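Design request, tokens follow.
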């Protein structure tokens, strides 16, 4: 008997096809989706508008997966870090960032990460494995039991575009009107710059794109982000220009500011030149320090001057005040383990 399938690994389309292939009505897929994502059903037995026979058949061939946090840490700014045990020795984290009652959930797409960016703690652990579609959406299902979520960002552990199929499928479930019902304006996929995959993402789903730029010359970016040697800045910026954006939407350029490395007004000037012909906004992220990494946070004066340079030139810019630093939940601090464990 073949292994049971995890029903949360299917988008609505795929579930319809699966059921149709077994001689069932397609609308059963919509009913199942609503049970899974709107009523948070944990078994097929809960799905009372399906016939007994269908429930039984589903039970024999499939299962409803779930994640429950093995720990939750709460920072003194209200940031909550959830640790999820994936059951095979791997664990990932999700971070809930409250902002005036509008919570943003930062989710993970991989256990570890293969990109090896020099400033990122996750990058020092290498890639263990991709998360399944179910493991990605189950982070959302789990945290939603605890708090309302307004925005979803794929900015946790891993490089989402390095796990492209599962991320695309997860986005579909997140924005499906019969699924988790997020507006596609409220879902953002962040990438270090996997150029061919950016094109596929843009073709397959409507979603916000964030690009971790972090440097403004190839020499600088080669040093910080090995991926730049494969897809240098000119290719990356071209992929941004070609990314299909719905009208009035912008690409978010993330820029980790590192003390004495990329934090001068010269850098700010080059940054602006790079993104000038792309609808843009900028997220400045002062480097979050972590053990074993020699980089430092820039001075307040350097951050403010950089920020002001961009504001004065009409760039929408947010300097991300570090959130959750006391519980190692800030950008670049996730490692899939609890503090002190
Ligand atoms: N791999 C994806 C998703 C990770 S998002 C990407 O690169 O976009 C994590 C964000 O945090 C990225 O913008 C990254 O540049 C930033 N980051 C990583 N380490 C950091 C650190 N130590 N301090 C501040 N930001 C960091």
């Amino acid at each position: 008997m073949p292994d049971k399938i995890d029903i949360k690994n299917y988008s609505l389309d795929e579930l319809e096809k699966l059921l149709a292939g077994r001689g069932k009505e397609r609308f059963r897929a919509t009913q199942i989706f609503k049970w899974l994502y709107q009523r948070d059903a944990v078994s097929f037995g809960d799905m009372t508008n399906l016939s007994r026979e269908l429930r039984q058949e589903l039970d024999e061939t499939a299962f409803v997966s779930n994640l429950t946090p093995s720990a939750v840490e709460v920072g003194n700014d209200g940031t909550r870090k959830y640790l999820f045990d994936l059951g095979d020795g791997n664990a990932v984290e999700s971070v809930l960032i409250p902002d005036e009652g509008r919570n943003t959930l930062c989710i993970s797409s991989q256990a570890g990460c293969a990109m090896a960016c020099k400033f990122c703690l996750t990058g020092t652990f290498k890639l263990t494995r991709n998360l399944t579609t179910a493991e990605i959406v189950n982070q959302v299902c789990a945290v939603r039991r605890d708090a309302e979520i307004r925005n979803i960002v794929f900015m946790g552990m891993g490089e989402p575009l390095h796990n492209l199929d599962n991320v695309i499928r997860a986005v579909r479930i997140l924005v499906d009107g019969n699924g988790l019902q997020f507006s596609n304006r409220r879902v953002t996929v962040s990438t270090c710059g996997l150029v061919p995959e950016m094109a596929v993402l843009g073709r397959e789903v409507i979603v916000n794109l964030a690009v971790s730029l972090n440097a403004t010359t190839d020499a600088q970016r080669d040093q910080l982000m090995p991926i730049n040697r494969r897809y240098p800045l000119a290719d990356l910026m071209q992929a941004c220009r070609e990314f299909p954006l719905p009208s009035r939407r912008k690409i978010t350029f993330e820029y980790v500011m590192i003390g004495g490395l990329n934090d001068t007004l010269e850098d700010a000037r080059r940054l602006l030149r790079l993104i000038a012909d792309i609808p843009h906004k900028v997220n400045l992220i002062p480097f979050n320090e972590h053990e074993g990494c020699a980089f430092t946070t820039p001075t307040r004066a350097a951050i403010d001057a950089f920020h002001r340079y961009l504001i004065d030139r009409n760039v929408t810019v947010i300097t991300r005040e570090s959130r959750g630093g006391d519980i190692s939940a800030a950008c670049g601090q996730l490692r899939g383990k609890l503090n002190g464990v």
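Comment from the thread starter after seeing the answer: thanks! The chain has two domains: 5-63, 71-327.
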